[in-house]
Write a structure and sequence with these properties.
single chain, mainly alpha, Tetracycline Repressor, domain 2, 0% strand, globular
């Protein structure tokens, strides 16, 4: 039997999918505690009983959002791995930064929700969470930091977290950082990519040179 999320992903034009898309954006903007199902229903243009019919309670919808984001992140990382496999480290990192930055800026709720989840002062009680350790292992393997994504050395874990946090901060902090720079959005995204490459690639290439 298909889950609600499977049905929504299968039919992007369905009411379930419409509600899910709005829920991702609003949860990403206000977090779990700052969001109400009434806010989501009003944005979709439906009454709250219709939302509950399709998704149940707020916790059920939030957990569906987490699963949906986890699925999208996994797919994006697989796409990146396919592109960068076998290339030199500097090239792998440059491509990965370009692809993941484009993805995250196109879906800012991903970075917002991850940062709200792990750095916010309030947490909701949910059995689901973002698969950060699993994603970190995949990234570490792609970067050549480990051969076993399930057994990552602590230093490699910290290095990957540095990369991911830098990406998330540029995305989630856009509304604060971009006015400071005076850049239009496209130029801000380009500058974010260039800055990430400038800071991260030489450090990782040098670390790799010292290890070899």
């Amino acid at each position: 039997m298909e889950t609600r999320l499977e049905k929504a992903r299968k039919d992007p034009e369905s009411m379930k999918a419409r509600i899910l898309a709005v829920a991702r954006r609003i949860f990403g903007e206000y977090g779990f505690h700052g969001t109400t199902t009434r806010m989501i229903a009003q944005d979709v243009g439906i009454d709250i009983s219709t939302l509950h019919y399709h998704w149940g309670e707020k916790k059920d919808l939030y957990e569906a959002v987490i699963l949906d984001i986890n699925t999208d992140l996994r797919r994006s990382l697989i796409d990146v791995e396919t592109i960068i496999h076998g290339r030199p480290l500097a090239e792998r990192m440059a491509i990965a930064i370009d692809v993941m930055t484009d993805y995250l800026f196109a879906h800012p709720e991903v970075s917002n929700l991850i940062l709200l989840r792990y750095f916010g002062k309030t947490r909701h009680e949910s059995s689901l969470d973002f698969k950060v350790p699993e994603f970190t292992g995949d990234i570490a393997r792609s970067m050549g930091l480990t051969n076993d994504p399930k057994n990552i050395p602590p230093r490699a874990m910290m290095e990957v977290l540095t990369v991911m946090n830098a990406l998330h901060n540029f995305v989630s902090g856009e509304n604060f950082f971009r006015p400071m720079t005076g850049l239009q959005r496209e130029d801000y995204i380009l500058a974010a990519k260039e800055t990430l490459k400038l800071i991260l690639i030489p450090a990782f290439v040098e670390r790799d040179r010292m290890r070899s």
